[in-house]
């Protein structure tokens, strides 16, 4: 059950996790990783910022709730801009894959709108070397949702 869809509020699960010191540290690490997106001036900076975000996610796979998920989803969608090179898109797809593995299918159904903004439009302008990775994301994470999607 969501309290609100506002980026500044938290889900009930996240609220309960805030009593865990390790989760609070995870939130701080996500904040630092997201800060890296604010100071990008070229595409290599985006790859670096995505790498830092991936590292934070990998170090905290035990949590199925991604802190600052609205901001994370927004930043990932921005990295799917058609003007950016395929290397950025591929690195962002790695991040999406990590997130989807962390959150699981039940949470993905609830949060699909947060993460799909960048993924679905990418197919129409993705480079040929990006399309297999994108289709793999669809196949591994979205198709199994099947009839549960409404």
From TrEMBL:
<dbReference type="InterPro" id="IPR007249">
    <property type="entry name" value="DOP1_N"/>
</dbReference>
<comment type="similarity">
    <text>Belongs to the DOP1 family.</text>
</comment>
<dbReference type="GO" id="GO:0005829">
    <property type="term" value="C:cytosol"/>
</dbReference>
<dbReference type="GO" id="GO:0015031">
    <property type="term" value="P:protein transport"/>
</dbReference>
<dbReference type="Pfam" id="PF04118">
    <property type="entry name" value="Dopey_N"/>
</dbReference>
<dbReference type="GO" id="GO:0006895">
    <property type="term" value="P:Golgi to endosome transport"/>
</dbReference>
<feature type="domain" description="DOP1 N-terminal">
    <location>
        <begin position="20"/>
        <end position="149"/>
    </location>
</feature>
<keyword id="KW-0653">Protein transport</keyword>
<keyword id="KW-0813">Transport</keyword>
<dbReference type="GO" id="GO:0005802">
    <property type="term" value="C:trans-Golgi network"/>
</dbReference>
<dbReference type="InterPro" id="IPR040314">
    <property type="entry name" value="DOP1"/>
</dbReference>
<protein>
    <recommendedName>
        <fullName>DOP1 N-terminal domain-containing protein</fullName>
    </recommendedName>
</protein>
<dbReference type="GO" id="GO:0005768">
    <property type="term" value="C:endosome"/>
</dbReference>
